[in-house]
């Protein structure tokens, strides 16, 4: 299982939201680069970043901070937030981003998303499938799609999608435990797809449960920032090899 530390950015600050609510923000004192360096020093060389301004505003407000993380720590970085077009994807890859995570574009501008998926490939384009009451949410989790997640995912896999970052919004930032039945259900339906769990990790028991599920990866944010997990524990569950 890949353990992927998260750095969510709002106005250049490292923060976490609860259930995706922009009016319920927890800020942390470390600068983005300092926080990334702590992860890298412990052996986590791939990081998950989110431009929360971008997710809401549709433009890359925090890209300079993400570029600093890459250049100053040497980590590979996947990022989401503010990606609305093929050109946006190209700009991020040109900036040194290793993978992009798209939810809004995939739902609202499917032709552009498919162009990116076909051009850059399933190795670099991750679907951000953020679920709110069983529906796919987008635009900073402020809107939801009418199509079922299963139907949408089936279509995307047929187009070459390989990797899905699935966030249970109701649990995101809540430290309430991961939604194991959700990830089991998705893996049963799409066994050849790489799923990354996000939302609700509260401690080591969640990492153990996800590891036993043999899920591809898990993103960890608040559980670490608020002391429910330490980097040594996270590293024990981290497989740094490539299971593709």
Largest sheet: 8 strands, parallel, barrel
Radius of gyration: 16 Å
Mean pLDDT: 92
Identify the CATH architecture: Alpha-Beta Barrel
SSE-based structural type:
alpha/beta
Low-confidence stretches: none
What does this protein look like?
By secondary structure, the protein is an alpha/beta fold. It contains eleven helices and twelve strands. β7 and β8 form a beta hairpin. The chain is globular. The model has no long low-confidence stretch (mean pLDDT 92).
Task: List its salient traits.
alpha/beta, 11 helices, eight-stranded parallel barrel, single chain, TIM Barrel, 244 residues, globular
Summarize the entry for a quick read.
By secondary structure, the chain is an alpha/beta fold. It has 11 helices and 12 strands.
Secondary-structure map:
Blueprint: E1 2-10, E2 13-18, E3 21-28, H1 32-41, E4 46-51, H2 52-57, H3 63-73, E5 76-80, H4 86-94, E6 99-102, H5 104-108, H6 110-120, E7 125-132, E8 135-138, E9 143-148, H7 149-158, E10 163-168, H8 180-189, E11 194-198, H9 204-213, E12 217-220, H10 222-225, H11 231-236
Parallel strand pairs: 1-4, 1-12, 4-5, 5-6, 6-7, 7-10, 10-11, 11-12
Antiparallel strand pairs: 1-2, 2-3, 7-8, 8-9
Helix pairs in contact: 1-3
